[in-house]
Amino acid sequence: MGERIDVLRLGHRKGRDPRITTHLALVARAMGADRFLLGGDEDEKMFENVRSVESRFGQAMDLEYLASPMGWLRTFARKDAGDGQPGTVVHLTMYGLPHREAIPHIRRDRPITVVVGGAKVPPEAFSLAHHNVSVGQQPHSEVAALALFLDAWTEGAGLDRRFDAPKLVIHPSARGKSVTEEE
Ligand code: SAM
Question: What is the pTM assigned to this prediction?
């Protein structure tokens, strides 16, 4: 599915955000991201919840806590995306350019980090980003913004990603639940 996709969640607050940050991680996992990076408060419980989904439904995504997320982003954007060359930073913000118009201008030959904000977004996120991208010009949800962006970026293929070693596999069914347990 092309170059690596990281999702960076800025400003996680352990007391207030676990549910929405878990949803962000689950959307990232379900829709094609290779790694979920957490900035703000460290939250092992939140990571455990996501790992529990991974252990039941299959491995797809790494999780990592960043003590210095803006430092990490600076390095990624300007110097090193893991291979000694800069990566591409896409910052999701309602102030940016509409995602369907922006996506054709985003390079696909480098790893990408999709940044989603929290309660407060450091101004540097706007200046470090190669692309400030909006999903509509109204404030809504980081979960919705991430899902719609990833769907458009992967042209829908993110939802068809493969999961390694699932214990449970869901089979589409018009009625009821069809699930098999794997060996
Ligand atoms: N008040 C914060 C600020 O300083 O801009 C933003 C709060 S908002 C609930 C949290 C995050 O959701 C944003 O940083 C952005 O990543 C995402 N978001 C919300 N609405 C969006 C939109 N229309 N387009 C793109 N991203 C959006």
Answer: 0.96
pLDDT in tens, 116-133: 999 889 999 999 999 999
Helix crossing, 18-30 with 44-57: angle to 10°?
A: 30
Domain count, the chain: 1
Residues with CB under 6 A from ligand 1: 92-94, 116-117, 120-121, 134-136, 138-140, 142, 145
Counting from 1 in the atom list of ligand 1, the atom nearest the Cα of 149 is: 25
pLDDT in tens, 137-169: 999 999 999 999 999 999 999 999 999 999 999
The atom of ligand 1 lying closest to the CA of 120 is: 4
- 84 burial type by CB count under 10 A (0-12 exposed, 13-18 middle, 19+ buried): exposed
Q: What is the CATH number of the domain that holds 127?
A: 3.40.1280.10
Tell me which residue range forms the domain holding 91: 5-181
